[in-house]
Amino acid sequence: MAEALSPERPIDAPAVDPSGAGAVGLGREEVLVLDFGGQYSQLIARRLRECGVFAELLPHDTDLERIRLRSPKALVLSGGPASVYETAAPALRTELLELGIPVLGICYGMQVMVQALGGRVEAAARGEFGRTELALVDEGGRLMAGLPATQQCWMSHRDCVYEAPSGFSALASSPGSPVAACEDPGRGLYGIQFHPEVVHTPHGQAILERFLREIVGCEEHWSAASVIGEQVERIRAQVGAGGVICGLSGGVDSATAAALVHEAVGDQLTCVLVDHGLLRKGEAEQVVETFREGLGITLVHVDARRRFLDRLAGVDEPERKRKVIGEEFIRVFEEEARRLPDVNFLVQGTLYSDVIESGGGTGAATIKSHHNVGGLPEDLDLELVEPLRMLFKDEVRAVASELGLSDRMVWRQPFPGPGLAIRIVGGEVNEERLEILREADAVLQEEVRAAGLYRDLWQSFCVLPVVRSVGVQGDGRTYAYPVVIRAVTSDDAMTADWARLPYDLLERASSRIINEVPGVNRVALDISSKPPATIEWE
Ligand code: XMP
Q1: Residue nearest to atom 16 of ligand 1 (CA)
Q2: For the chain, what is the radius of gyration of the CA atoms?
Q3: Beta bridge partners of residue 461, listed in sequence order
Q4: 211, 289, 473, 505: least surrounded by Cβ within 10 Å?
Q5: Ligand 1 lined by 530 (C-beta under 6 Å)
Q6: Is the C-beta atom of 536 inside 6 A of ligand 1?
Q7: Is residue 172 located within the same domain as residue 300?
Q8: Partners of 480 in the beta sheet?
């Protein structure tokens, strides 16, 4: 993952940085997290931001001069899968420890620091994985002062620190880690073997908070909402008097990006909603209402339902469905863009997690499928405006709320770009099946919301397998579709668990779907986790 990050372009810089700020810091207090490839690296940055300090993730081998130019208040070295002894293991440049900036190493980040400074790191007979009891030494030193003498933490390591480098003192130990935390306050160097960023370390956030406030001395209170003013200025500087176009998907990211751009340049923005007929019940209308009536944004609502249905006829194979939808989407969007005079900019709701995952590069590499189902209309030659590039999903929600978007929009569950098409499984998408799925899904949404569970679920939806089974209704036999309820909890969609929905909710949803939706005689529940299943069926 480390290679995927780009040191060339700071995350909060637009595709073309009109301020010319380049990689120089923006004058705010910030912490740089150097990524050694750990699975929780992003989470570290999120947790630091939750402490009210802006944090950005950079590859561990980011050019030293670039790091210096940013003038970070502190560096955090992330965990990583390597062992410090492997020849290919990502090394720590000791110059980083001599910049006069406090450094906190986490897991591999601590091991690599300890090794570089002459401490003893060795493979343990057995690693420590999962919940582990931690005992403080000397009341936790500076880093862990004031915390309980014994506490739980989350470990995930095989190598282990046996001796801290000279000048360091040990702060804690665990059954498998003689030195589970250490520090050399004189040099501003701190290390912890466990993961303070995961919820299974109950005092983890307090440790990060203490590091940032007491040790590093951060004073400002960054919040996602404070980004609004800054982004409005940047958008104005980038766009000037140009025309801007934004495709709305109905989701919170594109909606928030559009609302921010509207705040910055008002009527220079035109939004386009391509209604491909694969949205949920009432969603297109809701977007039109929110944007046109609620926010006073110019919105072109393109009814392309027939076009999509025609192109989807006879297409059974899921990847083919996605491709057809993606291609048609671009075609419709391009047609609309060409109709508008003087459009030079395209708004994208690209998030920080997309930037990291997709290489942090420029332009097309960062396209998010659920905004522009399948890609960017390249030959339109539009410059990207990406005001959410620095934000995590939960931070976008805070910005959306601050900008006055409705709760319904702010808290909308993720929805795939190809929409209901990938939930009609094993057969073509046609009007009849879409109608059944849309109605069944609407019932489920209603029941989930009524039970107050909508926000607790990552996603909840219905799937329509294209098979029929026998049932009995009144005096007659039926031969109709089953509907499958899929509801999952998740933090990031990488893994997911099936949601334990209450029986009475399931019962109501089932009986309502069967009674109210013609063509359905059976409701089933998907009780698979991801992995090995996925969230969507196709
Ligand atoms: P899976 O099914 O892979 O889904 O567990 C993970 C997350 O991605 C969403 N998803 C998609 N989003 N286009 C999208 O924009 C797609 O083709 C697509 N397929 C899955 C899914 O809803 C879940 O949030």
Answers
A1: 416
A2: 26
A3: 486
A4: 473
A5: yes
A6: yes
A7: no
A8: 469
